[in-house]
Amino acid sequence: MKKIILFPIIAFMLFFTEFTAYAQELQYTVINGEATITGFSGQPESIVIPPELEGAPVTEIRDNAFYKCSSLKEITLPESLEKMGHHCFFECTSLEKIAIPDSTAEIGMGCFDGCSALSEVTLSENFAVLPESCFRGCSSLKSIILPQNVTEIQKFCFAGCGSLSGISLSGNLKSIGDLAFYGCNSAGEIYIPDSVENIGIHSLGYNEYGKISGFSVTGSPDSAAEKYAAENEFPFSADPETAAAFAPQNSRNAPVKLPEIFLFAGLFFLIMALISSFRNSRK
Questions:
Q1: Each residue of 109-163: pLDDT tens digit?
Q2: What are phi and psi of 106, to 5 degrees?
């Protein structure tokens, strides 16, 4: 009899302990049947935000909610999350990775600004805009893949991401804001899709010392990519899947430019003429 009573008591204690852990680390409000994370307490290293609090779905992380929570190393976001406020993880300097669920459609400016340990990011497929300074100063971030719904990268978005070398832009991207990738010293080459109509001042290929050595742009002829490269005197190459796909190749499998073709043809005919002249003189 005692064993039968003891089991539900232990189960209740485990549930209560887990909920209390949430309550100790998370501060939140419940309004109109929806829960919003407003802050934290203590010095948490790992947090799992539950999909519900007090029976209400967690739909928002408020502005500045985890502002300068330097102890935080990992956090799990719920599938119920719809909105992340501005600077909500500002200078969480120990945060190493983040996966933003597809339920999230809005993210605030400076959301991960100064997260210097952040090396792995998975973005929501429903993002349309990456706001100002969103990942500014994420110096450990090495690669980023933009979902296809992203149409705008606002100014300073990835500024200061000095380790960022792998950048995959959305095929529906239209605008790259001023200084969006300023100080991305490891980005030696970037492909800019045809969809891009506007590229802001010093968006790509610049740092505090001027132009980044070895930086180049790839895109289609007569595109915003080619215009940006020309205006800033960066090397430009045509998209290899279009123009270069049918171009003559040299010994390094690189496209041969028309001037090279004419040069080779001229040398060929000159050599043939010399051989013919030599043969005639021997007769």
A1: 999 999 999 999 999 999 999 999 999 999 999 999 999 999 999 999 999 999 9
A2: -135, 135
91 vs 111: CA distance, rounded Å:
9
* 29-81 confidence digits (pLDDT tens): 999 999 999 999 999 999 999 999 999 999 999 999 999 999 999 999 999 99
Collect all residues with Cβ–Cβ distance below 8 Å to 258 and sequence separation of at least 6. Answer: none
- The fourth-level CATH superfamily of domain 59-272 is Ribonuclease Inhibitor (3.80.10.10)
* Rounded distance between C-alpha atoms, residue 142 and residue 138, angstroms: 9
Indicate the domain borders of the chain: 59-272
Kindly report the three-state secondary structure assignment for every residue of the chain: CHHHHHHHHHHHHHHHHHHHHHHHHEEEEEECCEEEEEEECCCCCEEECCCEECCEEEEEECCCCCCCCCCCCEEECCCCCCEECCCCCCCCCCCCEEECCCCCCEECCCCCCCCCCCCEEECCCCCCEECCCCCCCCCCCCEEECCCCCCEECCCCCCCCCCCCEEECCCCCCEECCCCCCCCCCCCEEECCCCCCEECCCCCCEECCEECCCCEEEECCCCHHHHHHHHHCCCEEECCCCHHHHCCECCCCCECCHHHHHHHHHHHHHHHHHHHHHHHHHC
